[in-house]
């Protein structure tokens, strides 16, 4: 792989006069898909840099791009870079590619990064630049993989579509024919009025264009611009609304001397501006203007529209286009336009926002106290995102305190809505949270702990239940204890204003349905006896009252949500054991079980197997775990639970291994079987009456069963696969087991 030299050049420290390089672009715009699109498997782009921007001549030995992402781009490491001089100034559309065969390939290799910053690609072959033509840089990325959504590069806005791009997960775009897209392949293409910020290594301007422009301290009327001073001490700066054209060589800016910093004032709120800077060198020589850096002034807090009273109807329209803020407190981006209101409630209480009409899409509503607040994107609390008539709770507002209400669009299309603030009731009832705790070790009873966490308009709260318990009053916030109640009792609580009993909240019934099973925790696991077949040692399982265990959740099976019970078994001498759930002995069916198996001890378990619906003969219900190659005598812990913990009932669990079946050959005492080996029909006869005959494979699974009630029986083996089986004959004389070979 070709060598790539990496250098991170921090914006605050760069001496332009000591290094032969030219920077074009100082913007911080992302998501423009150039020079590459890391979030897709393959990408290809071309970008035009004007000779007037480069303003230098000589041999270009490398380039730098500013990476602004968060990963190491480990999945975007197959770069090819091409250069070409041209008089082209823009691309007409997404098919207007420059012929790659007219370019010079200057680099093929990797582009490793470690953090946001400038990174250098040293060319394999230097490129001679004449200084008079424009320069087109083409980049393809060919690694069949992708990186993070937030991985990107800084770009600067320009006049005209000076970049063209294509990216895809399906097709590695061919630079010789980028418009050739086979049927079924998704390729995304476009043109953009942006170019990637770039530094050309090896050339130097006579009067270097300032780089590293940043804008900070943006308010509704001002912003501070800084840039890299280099070896200059005089500059001109040009700050204009983004809707106005960029400065020409003849346009003079505001003179700045000494420090590479300027504070623009008297700006208009919620307006997007472009900033350009050029150097004034010795002899009056001027550099070219830098690429634009864009910023938007904030909302003017003092211009917020007052909502005079709750119930007042407010109608607004948010125009299409980008807004000033991008508040994400509701969980969504809000890049669209916004409006600011201020509301001062008369009384303390819980207020609501009611939207009565809405068109155009989602608008997010936010609020925060005016005192000490700024009108930037910080400190907002979400009310709701709304796209149709709806009511949403604002929350608890204090009477006499002013609050900002912000509406901000989730997209840049136009939207209109009408809303009002619903007045708080004269009395706001206190609220509480409830936690039940069972006391099953001593008595089958439970307690309820009532945490009063909101007083509303009261100074205290009175809590009562419907079971005749004494009322309890609390001043301020705090916790009260009620109970005990018998297990299964449904208790309804009321939390009232202690100064107005008609102002209250009543809550849904709280109960503990049953005490946890004895084996609710791993430390109390019940031992399972391993039998020779599934029906030999079944144990009925009841999961009512089961709780979440402290052990780590299963790592490979889904559906765990607490409610588990525990068993433990000892691995038989064969080193193999099968654990399977099924119908209960009382006839209950259909529980959707999961079994997870562990080794170790309860305080240090290691998961070794897990199964949800593997039991044969049961679709999407019972489970089967098969363990082999284990150490005889080893303890296996079994965590058994109902999928998603949303079903309560009884089922069975059984542990078995065929090595524990008692086995005889041919005729055993009372029974005779023939022929052995058998191909189709096995004959069985006994001196006594045979009640039942069952056939098992060597995994212990029952494959045939026949009720006989006669001294002779015939079993049809024709449907069984070739192998060894165990035939169990139940007669008046007892149970016999015979090994049979099926040909």
Automatic annotation (TrEMBL):
UniProt xrefs under SUPFAM superfamilies: Fibronectin type III
Keyword entries, A-Z: Signal
Signal peptide start and end residues: 1-20
Coiled-coil intervals, chain numbering: none
Keyword Nucleus: no
Family matches, as CDD domains: FN3
The protein's name: Fibronectin type-III domain-containing protein
Organism: Flavobacterium aurantiibacter
């Amino acid at each position: 792989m070709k060598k790539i030299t990496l250098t991170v050049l921090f914006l605050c420290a760069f001496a332009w006069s000591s290094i032969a390089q030219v920077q074009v672009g100082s913007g911080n715009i992302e998501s423009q898909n150039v020079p590459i699109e890391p979030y897709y498997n393959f990408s290809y782009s071309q970008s035009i840099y004007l000779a007037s921007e480069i303003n230098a001549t000589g041999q270009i030995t490398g380039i730098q791009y500013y990476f602004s992402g968060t990963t190491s781009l480990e999945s975007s490491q197959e770069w090819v870079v091409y250069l070409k001089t041209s008089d082209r100034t823009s691309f007409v559309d997404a098919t207007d590619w420059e012929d790659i065969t007219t370019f010079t390939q200057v680099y093929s290799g990797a582009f490793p990064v470690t953090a946001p910053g400038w990174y250098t690609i040293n060319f394999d072959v230097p490129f001679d630049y004449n200084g008079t033509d424009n320069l087109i840089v083409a980049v393809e990325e060919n690694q069949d993989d992708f990186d993070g959504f937030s991985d990107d590069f800084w770009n600067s806005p320009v006049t005209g579509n000076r970049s063209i791009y294509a990216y895809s997960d399906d097709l590695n775009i061919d630079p010789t024919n980028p418009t050739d897209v086979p049927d079924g392949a998704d390729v995304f293409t476009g043109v953009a009025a942006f170019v990637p910020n770039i530094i050309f290594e090896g050339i130097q301007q006579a009067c270097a264009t300032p780089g590293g422009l940043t804008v900070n301290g943006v308010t509704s009327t001002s912003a501070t611009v800084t840039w890299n001073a280099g070896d200059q001490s005089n500059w001109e700066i040009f700050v204009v609304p983004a809707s106005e054209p960029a400065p020409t060589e003849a346009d003079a800016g505001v003179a700045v001397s000494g420090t590479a910093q300027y504070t623009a004032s008297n700006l208009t709120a919620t307006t997007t501006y472009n900033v350009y800077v050029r150097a004034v060198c010795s002899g009056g020589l001027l550099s070219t203007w830098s690429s634009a850096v864009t910023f938007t002034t904030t909302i003017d807090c003092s211009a917020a529209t007052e909502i005079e009273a709750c119930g007042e109807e407010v109608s607004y329209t948010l125009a299409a286009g980008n807004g000033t803020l991008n508040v994400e407190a509701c969980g969504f981006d809000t890049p669209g336009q916004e409006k600011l209101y201020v509301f001062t409630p008369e009384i303390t209480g819980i207020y609501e926002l009611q939207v009565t009409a809405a068109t155009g899409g989602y608008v997010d509503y936010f609020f925060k106290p005016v005192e000490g607040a700024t009108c930037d994107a910080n400190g907002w609390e979400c009310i709701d995102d709304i796209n149709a008539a709806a009511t949403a709770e604002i929350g608890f507002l204090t009477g006499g305190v002013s609050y900002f209400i912000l509406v901000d669009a989730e997209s840049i299309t136009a939207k209109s809505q009408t809303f009002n603030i619903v007045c708080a009731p004269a009395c706001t009832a206190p609220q509480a949270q409830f936690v039940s705790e069972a006391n099953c070790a001593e008595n089958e009873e439970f307690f309820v702990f009532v945490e009063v966490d909101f007083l509303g308009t009261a100074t205290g709260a009175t809590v009562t239940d419907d079971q005749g318990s004494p009322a309890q009053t609390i001043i301020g916030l705090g916790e009260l204890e009620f109970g005990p109640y018998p297990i299964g009792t449904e208790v309804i609580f009321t939390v009232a204003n202690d100064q107005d009993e008609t102002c209250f909240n009543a809550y849904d019934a709280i109960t503990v349905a049953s005490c946890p099973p004895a084996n609710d925790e791993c430390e109390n696991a019940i031992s399972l006896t391993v039998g020779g077949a599934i029906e030999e040692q079944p144990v009925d399982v009841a999961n009512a009252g089961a709780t979440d265990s402290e052990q780590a959740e299963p790592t490979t099976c889904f559906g765990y949500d607490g409610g588990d019970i525990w068993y433990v078994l000892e691995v038989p001498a064969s080193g193999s054991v099968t654990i399977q759930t099924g119908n209960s002995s009382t006839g209950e069916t259909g529980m959707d079980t999961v079994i997870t198996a562990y080794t170790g001890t309860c305080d240090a378990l290691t998961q070794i197997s897990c199964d949800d619906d593997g039991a044969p003969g049961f679709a999407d219900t019972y489970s089967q775990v098969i363990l082999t190659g284990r150490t005889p005598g080893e303890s296996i812990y079994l965590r058994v639970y109902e999928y998603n913990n949303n079903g309560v009932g009884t089922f069975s669990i059984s542990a078995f291994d065929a090595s524990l079946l008692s086995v005889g050959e041919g005729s055993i005492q009372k029974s005779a079987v023939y022929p052995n080996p058998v191909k189709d029909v096995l004959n069985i006869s006994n001196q006594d009456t045979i009640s039942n005959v069952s056939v098992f494979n060597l995994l212990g699974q029952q494959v045939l069963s026949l009720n006989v009630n006669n001294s002779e029986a015939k079993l049809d083996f024709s449907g069984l696969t070739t192998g060894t089986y165990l035939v169990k004959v139940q007669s008046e004389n007892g149970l016999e087991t015979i090994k049979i070979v099926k040909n």
